[in-house]
Write a structure and sequence with these properties.
Length: 612
């Protein structure tokens, strides 16, 4: 079998297979060229998801007729003036996009430089080019792609439906629009406008413009629940916005990462995001993240993937450390803040049920049902000695809703507290699980177990950082029977568990004896704790220390040391929990990413009852 050179058209089609995966990838290359040309406005028209027509028009620098003819040849570019692949200052630089698209579609490129009398166009179809020919056009460039993959019909079979291909195209433009809020973008599909993003620099600085653009693309909920990120280390800058942990979703599609303005899908960066959120989210939940990384072109290689979707960093450890540290700091700055969508979901659950319309309620004085009036009063304020009961109510039926011990705080102090504290003052405990507090402009409902779990967890981390977790000796050591594998895992990690405050040792056979437990846990179910830890250790790589998996182990310890649902709290205990939440980082969510409290504004409650 002899070796031969491939014909140019086949070479272009092979390149197209790498660069032009689908209409969206061709569109991305064309829009990147427009951005590189200095355009401040890019208009896009698609038909049939881009399969039959793609048109990209920009107001960039344009091309002369000579440049136009060279631009459709392979490896022709204006973006490597020094022939140095370590100095890539543009999104496109390979010079493959136009000839690759022209080899599998009918391509027309029309362009005009500012200050010239006329524009010019060139046609490329199936690899053959014709032109240049004079053409009327405002300064800028217009590229038209028709019948993509007409010369390679087998590729058409791998495309999805028109709607699916359109969704890929919209996603590609939205990603570029996130990185360039100073450029206006519009996208019209089959005669209907899908995107109309105006440049936002005139309304504030670049940082504000990014959030404005992101709120349009990702929705107002992102803007309301976004936390700013800004950090710099050794010449590397990181900025952007991330969602509070309780604002999350079931997949990672809402994570947008950019390196020097280039949208990328990078495992290192995605891993850094997971590491930063590991204390706050369950493994199957993912945060909203939009982050921009800027560094010297010589410290990042963007030439490792044909579609330029992956990058390689010179100092990957520095980049990862900067990201993890910056994201954790931003989350800590958010304090006890929880997602606004939690309250929205709660309000949705309060919708009136039609079945109540025909229900007859027992009436007491003033036309209110006696028991219902009493329960409402218990929600409003702690009761003492049956005060405030409606006629016919019994104290015993209401104290189940009120704190188990009276709150002796003066009324004046209580009134001042609920207006001055973000989480207000406790008014009642409901079902021995939820604390109802009154704030200056609404109410807060707190899950006492989830909230205390976060408080214990954060205190354990602080104690560990300060040199060790204090321990308490069990008066009678607890002997626990486990299966052989679990007992072996626990015994092998005994030294590391001791650093976390749990002192235990093998006790012959499959038994483990526990002698000391973390003092923070108080009275706890030692047997259940050790069994849960054994399950956690089964999922931990033997090469990792427990400090590396602090979230898993301390999370289990904190869960067992928390106030359980079903435990009655008095007014002082409830208010103490609220005050601790206000000063504890990340108190808006438990270790699994669930909200610890729901806040309902008074205006929203009034809407529920038709008062607004």
């Amino acid at each position: 079998m002899s070796i031969r050179l491939l014909p140019p058209n086949l070479v272009n089609q092979i390149a197209a297979g790498e660069v032009v995966e689908r209409p969206a990838s061709a569109l991305k290359e064309l829009v990147e060229n427009a951005i590189d040309a200095g355009a401040t406005r890019v208009d896009i028209v698609l038909n049939d998801g881009g399969r039959s027509l793609i048109v990209v028009t920009d107001n960039g620098c344009g091309m002369t007729s000579q440049e136009l003819m060279v631009a459709v040849d392979r490896h022709a570019t204006s973006k490597l003036p020094t022939d140095d692949l370590l100095e890539i200052n543009y999104l496109g630089f390979r010079g493959e996009a136009l000839p690759a698209i022209g080899s599998v579609a009918r391509l027309t490129v029309t362009s005009r430089k500012p200050g010239t009398d006329s524009g010019w166009y060139v046609v490329v179809a199936g690899g053959r080019k014709d032109g240049p020919v004079p053409a009327p056009l405002p300064p800028g460039t217009r590229i038209e792609v028709r019948d993509i993959f007409f010369s390679t019909p087998a590729r058409l079979k791998f495309l999805k439906s028109a709607q699916t291909e359109l969704s890929y195209a919209v996603d590609a433009i939205e990603r570029l629009a996130m990185a360039y809020p100073d450029i206006s973008f519009s996208l019209t599909a089959d005669g209907k406008q899908r995107l109309n993003l105006t440049a936002g620099l005139q309304q504030g600085d670049l940082f504000d413009s990014h959030l404005e653009r992101l709120s349009v693309i990702l929705g107002k909920e992102f803007g309301a629940n976004a936390v700013p990120v800004a950090a710099e280390r050794e010449g590397i800058k990181l900025f952007g916005y991330i969602g509070v942990p309780t604002f999350n979703r079931g997949n990672a599609l809402a994570q947008y990462l950019f390196v020097n303005g280039r949208p990328v899908r990078d495992r290192l960066l995605a891993g850094a995001v997971r590491a930063a959120y590991q204390d706050f989210l369950a493994p199957n939940r993912h945060p909203y993240v939009v982050l921009f990384l800027e560094l010297s072109q010589r410290d990042v290689d963007v030439n490792v993937h044909p579609a330029k979707a992956e990058v390689r960093f010179r100092d990957a450890g520095l980049v990862r450390g900067l990201m993890v540290g910056a994201l954790k700091h931003a989350l800590a700055e958010a304090g006890h803040r929880a997602s606004t969508t939690v309250a929205t979901g709660a309000l949705g659950a309060f919708q009136a049920h039609s079945g109540l319309a025909g229900m007859r309620l027992p009436l007491g004085g003033n036309g209110y049902g006696g028991t219902h009036y009493g329960a409402a009063y218990a929600m409003q304020a702690p009761l003492e000695d049956g005060q405030g009961l409606a006629e016919g109510d019994s104290a015993s039926s209401l104290f189940a809703l009120a704190p188990s011990a009276p709150d002796t705080t003066p009324v004046e102090a209580v009134e001042a507290d609920y207006r001055s504290h973000p989480l207000g003052v406790a008014r009642a405990q409901v079902h021995e699980t939820y604390i109802v507090a009154q704030t200056g402009d609404g109410i807060v409902i707190v899950d006492q177990h989830a909230a205390h779990e976060r408080l214990v967890y954060e205190r354990m981390k602080q104690s560990l950082d300060a040199g060790g977790i204090s321990r308490q000796i069990l008066l009678i050591p607890e002997v626990i029977e486990l299966d052989e594998a679990s007992a072996g895992r626990i015994a092998a990690r005994a030294g590391e568990l001791a650093e976390l405050g749990l002192v235990l040792e093998a006790f012959g056979g499959n038994s483990i004896v526990v002698r000391e437990v973390p003092a923070l846990l108080g009275e706890t179910d030692v047997i259940g704790l050790v069994k849960d830890l054994a399950d956690d250790l089964a999922a931990v790589d033997d090469a990792l220390s427990l400090k590396d998996r602090l979230g898993d182990v301390c999370g289990t310890l904190a869960c067992h040391g928390s106030i359980r649902a079903g435990r009655r709290l008095n007014g002082a205990e409830m208010n103490a929990l609220l005050r601790q939440m206000e000063v504890t980082p990340h108190a808006g969510q438990c270790n699994h990413g669930r909200p610890t409290y729901v806040e309902l504004k008074l205006k929203d409650i009034e809407r529920l009852f038709g008062r607004r």
